[in-house]
Design brief:
There is one protein chain. By secondary structure, the chain is mainly alpha-helical. The chain has one domain. Helix content is about 60%, strand content about 0%. InterPro entries: EthR_C, Tet_transcr_reg_TetR-rel_C_sf. This is HTH-type transcriptional regulator EthR C-terminal domain-containing protein. It comes from Nannocystis pusilla.
């Protein structure tokens, strides 16, 4: 539930122009890293 709320707040802040926000070019990478760390206990798997 908390991860969904975090995604919602990040996207809402970015769309509404609230500061500070995550740089648009890094939003997906940042959210992915947080989700992977929360679910799997680490970052993206090594290729």
């Amino acid at each position: 539930m908390a991860l969904n709320w975090m995604n919602e707040r990040v996207l809402h802040a970015g769309f509404a122009g609230h500061a500070p926000t995550i740089d648009e070019s890094q939003v997906v990478d940042v959210l992915l890293a947080i989700w992977l760390a929360a679910i799997y206990g680490g970052g993206a798997p090594a290729s």
